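Give me the 3D structure for NADH-quinone oxidoreductase subunit H.
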Amino acid sequence: MEFAFIIEKFILIIVVFVITLVIAMYSTLAERKVAGFMQDRLGPDRAGIFGILQPLCDGGKFFFKEEIIPAGAHRPLFILGPTLAIITACIGSAVIPWGQALTIGDRVVELQVADVNVGILYIFGVVALGVYGIMLGGWASNNKFSLMGAVRAASQSISYELAMGLSIIALLMVTQSLSLKEIVAQQEGFVNWNIWAQPLGFLIFLICAFAETNRVPFDLPECETELVGGYHTEYSSMKLGLYMFSEYINMFVSSALMAAIYFGGYNFPFMYDLGLSANWITIIGVFVFFIKIIAFIFFFMWIRWTLPRFRYDQLMNLGWKMLIPLALANIALTGVFIILKDKFF
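Predicted structure for NADH-quinone oxidoreductase subunit H (345 residues):
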């Protein structure tokens, strides 16, 4: 039984890893297609039908480009930076429940790599580690533009993690659990989705997710108009590709997390009124979950081609003077709501 459990988890890890890489790979194509649509042009359309092979061409370009390490760079840390960035990006999806259990023969297979009872804390720990990859790469490059981008990334991450954590505290007051599996299970039925109980908390979390993934309008660590390429200015070949891939993987994991904790995850309206078997409901739930994730990814891209980036002082003011006070107010309002609900209902 233990051997079968290990095989199940190994297969699930491989499947999640492959899906993550494929979605990240084709997010690069989707980004350019969305940009083309919003700018009234086609976007990539030469490599395969509708440009479907463009991500493979881009990946091949990264693999075959010349590998350059600056003479003044700290070589071990220069290599460690993008490695750490991609590892922390990939392991974030380990605690996300992708669906209900599947029954295969006499075995019940959980569609979650690790059911950790402190899954939310695990996610925040991984997010906190991710900035080290950027910081190491920027410092080890021995380039002032790279270092400035890395310092921006570190200070931005610290600032917005506070507001993000405070927004989650209000959610935990409602759900009474740190387990992602339990939080998603509680949202059975459309009216039980946490977005209805925590609309302000979701808005704060969404804004912080943009900042944590360094997406426009919070892409100050890269900011091509000021810092050439930011923390990855000196990177080339696949090391540059790892940094870019980690950004898209972080966007995918952030979208999955928001869909899971605020929009019911794999739950969908009338799921038990269809008269289908449990396995079919699980399969449909997985597809519904990925539709929600893709909708969030599209929103990330839509914002990129709609809003200009902030100035750095505006970014800091938003984080410290607006989002953190709003998150604290949301905690207070949630506490009052819970007290009144327990007293009168």
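The chain has one domain: 2-344. Let me know if you want a second pass.
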